[in-house]
Amino acid sequence: MATDNQSLRGFIEDLERALPAEVLRIKDPVNQNFEMTSTIMELDRLNKSPVVIFENVAGFDMPVVTNTAANRGLLARCLNTSVKELPSVFRERCQNYIPPEIVPRGAWDEIVLEGDDIDLTKLPIPLQFSVDAAPYITAGQVTARDPETGIDTTGFHRLMLKGKNRLGISLHSRRRMFEFHRRAEARGENLPAAIVLGVHPLHYMGSMVYAYPPNVRKFDIIGGLFGEPYRLARCGIADLEVPANAEIIIEGEILANVHEPEGPFGEFTGYASYRSTQNVFVVKRIRMQRKAYFHSITAGMARDHILISCITREGEILNALRRNIPNVKEVHVPHTTCGAFLAIVSIKKVSEGEAKMAMLSTLGTELYTKSVIVVDDDVNIFDMDDVMWAVATRSRAEKDIMMVPGVKSAIIDPTSDPKNFTITKWGIDATAPLDEKFAERLTISEEHRSRALEILSRAKVI
């Protein structure tokens, strides 16, 4: 039987057929502690981003899949587009909501563990950094339903191994899941939830969308990315619907009015994060495919952890900007600024003040983005040398730097206020003025550049 095109397995099998060099199977034994993380970090340093399958994790009989979302080219391929058009195509597709299809049974229903058979320590959960308080499930998509409206959501939340059936969970993004839990807690109820492991990268991408109407499900957005209904099946906790072709489902509850130490954890900021909402998830049941993959996301500043955040933020910001400033060309959120904290906006400026409009809209769109640089459309926003050249030669500090103090920010931003988690956001207008004759930029034509490359090739330099 053909593997489902919406599954992690389908994604891997398609790559192995079409682009075999993009899947790296490591057969040598690796330790659960640190070795998988350090391997991915070294690949990042070598600027290589294959999907990696660790087939032999010492002490476990389950392979670990990681680095599924570390390559812009592979993510663009999932959407049948180019790397350059990826943010724009993502932006368009994730607004084309397609309701899911409910199928009778999930692929994860082959093995069911309950009661004393539940033992999370038998899963090859990596310990990623020496600072981490424990091994962490990092690729867990937590699904739960709003106790008031019945609309569900799905998204990533770090999950700290605390025992055979107990996980620490932090809801520090303070978005929908945080609010669902708050509403359940106000009723004196635990929040039923399911942790989903092993999903297609398009699920990963769609789950990162934050700006959408309250009556829309994340699964509608993911369906839009696939271009067809996303296939779901009901699991055994509160009839929650989860991806039918996931590898593993962990069913349970986020407890009301229970808080326990969680963290530290090596976060995307490149720092150990001690900040947490310190919630607790208790496992009721585990379901999995017979030969399940354990999906893990390499934490810290690994591309696997950050790249999709870059792309989804680029799409979200571009979507917000084009509602009011149609001459915005592109948005880039660099991996090197943690995939969150800086956005660079390219604009074909037609009137003064547009750059500041773009700054304010960007800073208000995305919680984590605290700095914005706006440049003219002759600047390559994917080249930080070009961007910093524009900042150095086109911005005047006394009028082109804007600061907005006291803005709500991310709890895990190490520069946010430790008590109220606010921050001063800022922007730089690095566009040339329109109302005065400005210096002319030096350029080399494409014709002369092509000729130069030909000369260098004949000289065997390139």
Structure characterization notes:
Helices cover 27% and strands 24% of the residues. It is of the alpha+beta class and 462 residues long. It has two domains: 69-290, Roll (Pnp Oxidase, Chain A), CATH 2.30.110.10; 325-430, UbiD C-terminal domain-like. The strands form five sheets. Strands 5, 6, 7, 8, 9, 10, 11, 14 and 17 form a nine-stranded antiparallel beta sheet that branches. A five-stranded mixed beta sheet has the order 19-20-21-23-22. The longest helix is centred in the last third of the chain and has 22 residues, at 303-324. The radius of gyration is 23 Å and the shape is globular. It starts with 7 loop residues before the first helix and ends with a helix. The mean pLDDT is 94.
Distance between the termini: 48 Å
Helix content: 25-40%
Q: How many helical stretches?
A: 12
Identify the CATH class of the largest domain: Mainly Beta
What is the structural class? alpha+beta
Give the tally of β-strands: 23
Low-confidence stretches: none
Give me the CATH superfamily of the largest domain.
Electron Transport, Fmn-binding Protein, Chain A
Indicate the radius of gyration in whole angstroms.
23 Å
